[in-house]
Design brief:
Blueprint: H1 6-58, H2 64-79, E1 82-86, E2 92-95, H3 110-116, E3 121-127, E4 132-141, E5 149-156, H4 158-208, H5 222-258, E6 262-267, E7 272-275, H6 277-283, H7 287-290, H8 295-298, H9 302-313, E8 318-324, E9 330-340, E10 346-355, H10 357-393, H11 399-434, E11 441-444, H12 446-462, E12 466-470, E13 476-479, H13 481-497, E14 504-512, E15 515-521, H14 529-532, H15 544-549, H16 556-566, E16 570-576, E17 580-588
Parallel strand pairs: 12-14
Antiparallel strand pairs: 1-2, 1-5, 3-4, 4-5, 6-7, 6-10, 8-9, 9-10, 11-13, 14-15, 15-17, 16-17
């Protein structure tokens, strides 16, 4: 439906009222003028009828017929009216416009009937004799209850119609002028009335767009002023409430965004209502694209879909574990509860997801560590126990064989002691790093590298392996000298172990990409790529038989890793099978 502006509606109604008023006024004036004209004409005709009756009464009866007709014609000629004399029987004695002999009986005429009763007869009707509408006035002639004749005068209303048309035209012309003036006045008044309404409409549109800080001007009209004031109060209240809601929503979004736990909400139809960034990251989703879609469409995880259905069907909180299959499996502890409205009706479900993958991995590492420690300790202990039992069973053995057995026991005890020492060292480094008890100081790196090389030099010379070192004199970093020396010793010792006789091992310290890097490079057997990500795990060995043969505990690289973590640094490895390996310790400047 097409809508029009208030200005034009008011102007149209003003003009309509003016036109209707003009029509009513014209009709009223036309009737009033007509009634006034008929009344005036009737009075005039009455006087003329009385004069005619007076002359008829003075005329002798014997001469009456002819003289009466002449009298009527003469009077009609002088007054411009129609004069007629009628006998009580209805016979016409004289008429100013027609020959009375050819006229019909007039006894049934209304004005004649009234005159015969001694009254003044008056009638407005169509005349068959003249052929037009005329106003008739008749008076009785003679004294007593029985008049001798009826004197009647009449006048055509044709002149009245022409006068009324002229008057009507003048009234209409004046009315048109009045309508135009009324229209202009209506437009002005409409503008005056509609301007504050337009301002309020514009203000309401601003309110609808959220511009609630603006205020409407208060019109002088009491009703519009109250309306504008009410709208301003409403805008102020809405502004305050919206600000409160926005603040609460921002606080809630900030809380949800900062949560490590993933939070998602679904309605009763399993459509996603909301989810935070943590939940989106856990499942690799884009929040804007999945909100409003069902959980089956949004998340391709059967465990989560099943858990949502279970939560919606349950009246008590639900807990379960969800596994996300990706490059590496992730384990999520899920807590689900029913969402309820203010009346306590269930409207959906809320699911909180806690990533417990580190706990699961820590548990796996702990199990593996316990198993590895047990295995690593059990091997030397079993060997020691076996040789000791052998010696106890046969005390008369050859002294040389006894010395060999005791040498094996000593070596296994030494290996057992090395494992225990490394475990204690690793445990101490971890504990002190967690409690931030490892002190760091700014120290030059060259003396530390020289000392580490000196410690490993004896073993290297036994295999004719050269250890080459390169470090600027002024190169320094914030370090713990004792721990860093131990880490470099472990790397150099491994490089010597896994290098062929007569090869070289290089130790180099330098500035690189805004960091300080200490590299230990060998040209040994190298490490396959699939093992490189795990060589820093406790007791992990690429070649277990060779590692044990060389006397390794399986904890050296793990100790290096934790020492670098205590220094807020990291350890990189680049290795090519058959060409050697390069281990690099990187420190922040």
């Amino acid at each position: 439906m097409r809508r029009t502006r208030l200005l034009w509606q008011l102007s149209f109604h003003f003009a309509l009222i003016a036109v209707v008023s003009l029509l009513v006024f014209t009709l009223y004036m036309r009737k009033a003028v007509r009634d006034f004209y008929l009344e005036t004409t009737a009075e005039r005709l009455l006087i003329q009828a009385q004069i005619l009756g007076f002359h008829v009464a003075e005329t002798s009866f014997a001469e009456r017929p002819q003289r009466i007709d002449d009298l009527c014609k003469k009077m009609g000629s002088l007054t411009g009216t129609r004069a007629t004399v009628i006998l009580p029987s209805g016979e016409v004695l004289g008429d100013s416009h027609r020959d009375p002999k050819g006229m019909e009986n007039h006894r049934d005429r209304p004005e004649v009937q009234e005159a015969l009763q001694g009254q003044v007869g008056r009638s407005l009707r169509y005349s068959n004799t003249v052929g037009e509408e005329e106003l008739y006035v008749a008076v009785p002639v003679g004294l007593g209850n029985r008049p001798q004749a009826i004197a009647r005068t009449a006048m055509s209303t044709h002149a009245l119609g022409a006068s009324l048309s002229s008057i009507t035209l003048r009234i209409m012309l004046a009315g048109v002028l009045i309508v135009v003036l009324a229209g202009l006045l209506g437009v002005l008044i409409s503008k005056r009335l509609s301007r504050p309404i337009e301002e309020m409409k514009t203000g309401a549109e601003r309110f609808a767009r959220g511009e609630l800080e603006t205020r409407l001007p208060i019109p002088e009209t009491e009703e519009l002023g109250r309306l504008a004031q009410t709208l301003n109060e409403m805008a102020a209240q809405l502004d305050e409430r919206i600000r409160t809601i926005l603040a609460q929503r921002n606080e809630m979004e900030a809380v949800l965004a900062s949560m490590v736990e993933g939070v998602l909400a679904v309605d009763a139809g399993e459509k996603l209502i909301s989810l935070n960034q943590a939940a989106a990251r856990l499942f690799g989703l884009e929040r804007e694209k999945v909100v409003g879609r069902t959980i089956q469409e949004a998340v391709r995880n059967a465990d989560l879909q099943r858990f949502v259905k279970q939560t919606l069907a349950s009246s008590v909180p639900v807990e379960d574990e969800i596994v996300v299959r990706d490059k590496t499996d992730r384990y999520l502890q899920a807590h689900g509860t029913v969402l309820r409205d203010a009346r306590g009706q269930g409207i959906g479900a809320l699911v909180v997801l806690n990533d417990v993958t580190p706990l699961r991995r820590t548990e796996i590492i702990r199990r593996d560590f316990v198993a590895n420690v047990s295995h690593e300790l059990k091997t030397p202990i079993t060997s020691i126990k076996g040789f000791v039992e052998t010696l106890l069973d046969d005390a008369n053995r050859d002294p040389q064989q006894v010395r060999n057995f005791l040498g094996i026991v000593a070596r296994q005890a030494e290996r057992l002691n090395a494992i225990v020492d490394d475990l204690l060292t690793l445990s101490k480094i971890e504990a002190e790093a967690q409690q931030e008890q490892i002190s760091l100081e700014t120290a030059r790196l060259r003396p530390i590298l020289l000392e580490a090389v000196r410690i490993c030099e004896l073993k290297a010379k036994a295999r004719e392996i050269r250890i080459e070192m390169s470090c600027p004199e002024d190169l320094a970093a914030r370090i713990n000298p004792h721990l860093l020396e131990q880490a470099i010793v472990n790397l150099v010792d491994n490089a010597v172990k896994y290098s062929e006789n007569g090869m070289a091992v290089s130790v180099e310290a330098r500035r690189e990409n805004g960091e300080i890097a200490v590299s230990v490079r060998d040209t040994g057997c190298g490490i396959e790529k699939e093992h490189q990500s795990r060589i820093f795990e406790r007791f992990y060995r690429v070649d277990k038989a060779r590692s044990r043969k060389l006397g390794g505990t399986g904890l050296g690289l793990s100790i290096v890793k934790h020492i670098m973590q205590a220094h807020h640094g990291r350890t990189d490895v680049v290795s090519v099978p058959g060409q050697g390996s390069t281990f690099t310790l990187r420190f922040p400047v």
